[in-house]
C-alpha cells in the first residue's frame, strides 16, 4: 500500500522528492499518512477532495485483495 501511495503521489506533484508516506499497522488495519510540499497540496487533494478520494478508493481495492483495511490521511506540512 505504501509503495502504491508513493507512486500515485509522485506522479501528481511537481516536487516528487518531497513526497513522504508513513505507515502504521494494527492487526489487519493499515493507516497511511501522506506528506507533500505545501505547493502540491492542492494537486493531491483536488477540487472538493476528489483526487484524494480517488486515491483512497484505489487503496481500498488493493487492501481488499490482501484482506486488509486501509485509511489515508493527507497531512499538512
What does this structure look like?
- With 77 residues, the chain is α+β, with helices and mostly antiparallel strands.
- The chain has one domain (2-75): GMP Synthetase, Chain A, domain 3 (2-Layer Sandwich), CATH 3.30.300.
- The chain is built from three helices and three strands.
- The protein has helices at residues 2-12, 41-45, 50-65, and strands at residues 20-26, 29-35, 69-75.
- It has a three-stranded mixed beta sheet with strand order 1-2-3.
- A hairpin with a 2-residue loop joins strand 1 (20-26) and strand 2.
- The two termini are 21 Å apart.
- The mean pLDDT is 95.
The CATH homologous superfamily is termed: K homology (KH) domain
- Given as residue ranges, the uncertain stretches (5+ residues, pLDDT < 50) are none
Count of DSSP helices?
3
> How many structural domains in the coordinates?
1
Proportion of strand residues? 25-35%
Residues in helix, %: 40-55%
Based on secondary structure, the structural category is alpha+beta
Give the averaged pLDDT, no decimals.
Answer: 95
- Span of the ends, CA to CA: 21 Å
Tell me the CATH architecture: 2-Layer Sandwich
| Main beta-sheet strand count, sense and barrel state | 3 strands, mixed
Here the CATH topology equals GMP Synthetase, Chain A, domain 3
Q: Strand tally, please?
A: 3
Order of helices and strands: HEEHHE
Oligomerization status of the protein chains:
single chain
Strand sequence of the main sheet, in spatial order?
A: 1-2-3
Shape: globular
Amino acid at each position: 500500500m505504501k509503495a502504491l501511495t508513493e507512486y500515485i503521489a509522485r506522479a501528481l506533484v511537481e516536487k516528487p522528492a518531497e513526497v513522504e508516506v508513513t505507515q502504521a499497522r494494527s492487526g489487519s488495519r493499515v493507516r497511511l499518512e501522506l506528506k507533500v510540499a505545501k505547493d502540491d497540496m492542492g494537486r493531491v487533494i483536488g477540487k472538493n477532495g476528489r483526487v484524494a478520494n480517488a486515491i483512497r478508493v484505489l487503496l481500498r481495492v488493493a487492501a481488499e485483495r490482501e484482506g486488509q483495511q486501509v485509511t489515508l490521511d493527507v497531512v499538512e506540512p
